TrEMBL record:
One Pfam family of this chain: DUF4220
Domain of life: Eukaryota
Organism encoding this protein: Dendrobium chrysotoxum
Protein name: DUF4220 domain-containing protein
DUF4220 domain sequence ranges: 50-315
Leader peptide range in chain numbering: none
Keyword rRNA-binding applies: no
Transmembrane regions: 16-36, 48-67, 79-101, 108-128, 134-152, 254-273, 285-307
Keyword Repeat: no
InterPro entries named among the record's database cross-references: DUF4220
Length: 319
């Protein structure tokens, strides 16, 4: 059965627009529901997160591949369509709340990083097709910068959560760095215990002297306190294995956070100031949705970062 021509034409006109909005919707789902996966036992929530996680990369890649075929050399909308390409790179970088769905995903960090080359080639080809019109070149490059940073952050988080990455972090964590057990507040002590027991997550015995210190601390606790400590340690482990926490909670991570937020705001300002009388009104509306939603999601991610336990621990240990 042949598909009627009018439906084919309708899809040709709307395919990229629908896909890019779908990709954005998946990012919204992941940033909010990704946090619930750690504590929720609902099968429906886990199913939605799993489906969204599986679709996120496929939809973004498919939309990116279709951008060039949507462009018409005689249309002024080429420049605004090219502006959408870096948003798809940004979506491929994923939200801070979920980088992997399982530990096996972390072992694919190299393949994920290599994929950046192919995706950037397609995105820059789309940008090249929009030239010599350079009206939105600066905001496009700003979002490109943010997208590349977020993509590399995710790849690095995947690497640090792989067996190889965990082994490297354990080998760099000498016993002298774990000696401080006195005068620690509750959160710092819980994080110290997590750091000291991290080798156990990959079936490596912790340092013997640290093992005895852990034993002494735990024996002084009540059963309820031990369960609370275990809950905290598993929470830290989840953040490190399945989110961008290990990147975000570092000096470089804080700098990149400010840089990315600034770039998104600048891109939004430049787009607002750019005359848009010859652009398709629907395309302009979609672009505003992409920009405003990116600002809101970045703001939400910053709030989550600021009020996380790891941020409190970092501030308490700043000399």
């Amino acid at each position: 059965m042949e598909i009627p021509l009018k439906y084919k034409q309708l899809w040709n006109n709307w395919d990229v627009r629908v896909l890019i909005l779908l990709s954005l919707s998946i990012q919204i789902i992941l940033i909010f529901l990704g946090r619930l996966r750690r504590t929720s036992t609902s099968r429906w929530i886990r199913m939605v997160i799993w489906v969204s996680y599986m679709l996120a990369e496929w939809v973004a890649n498919f939309a990116l591949g279709n951008l060039s075929s949507t462009m018409d050399d005689s249309s002024s909308s080429n420049v605004i369509i090219a502006f959408w390409a870096p948003f798809l790179i940004l979506h491929l970088g994923g939200p801070d709340t979920i980088t992997a769905y399982s530990m096996e995903d972390n072992e694919l960090w190299a393949r994920h990083l290599l994929g950046l080359g192919y995706e950037l080639f397609i995105a820059f080809y789309v940008l090249f097709r929009s030239l010599p019109d350079t009206r939105l070149l600066m905001p496009t490059l700003l979002i490109f910068l943010v997208g590349i940073i977020k993509y590399v952050e995710r790849s690095y988080s995947l690497y640090k959560s792989s067996v190889e990455g965990i082994q490297s972090s354990i080998s760099s964590l000498s016993p002298t760095k774990l000696e401080r057990t006195n005068d620690l507040n509750g959160l710092s002590q819980d994080f110290w215990l997590y750091s000291a027991t991290k080798p156990s997550f990959i079936d490596v015995a912790p340092y013997s002297d640290q093992y005895f210190k852990i034993k002494i601390i735990v024996m002084k606790m009540s059963a309820k306190e031990v369960l609370m400590v275990i809950r905290k340690e598993l929470s830290y482990a989840y953040d490190e294995f399945f989110t961008k926490a290990i990147v975000n909670h570092s000096i470089l991570g804080y700098v990149l956070r400010v840089l990315c937020s600034t770039c998104i705001l600048l891109a939004f300002s430049l787009f607002v100031l750019e005359p848009k009388h010859d652009f398709n009104k629907l395309d302009v509306a979609i672009t505003y949705v992409l920009l405003t939603t990116s600002i809101c999601l970045d703001f939400m991610a910053t709030i989550m970062l600021m009020f996380s336990d790891r941020m409190v621990i970092y501030l308490l240990n700043v000399n």
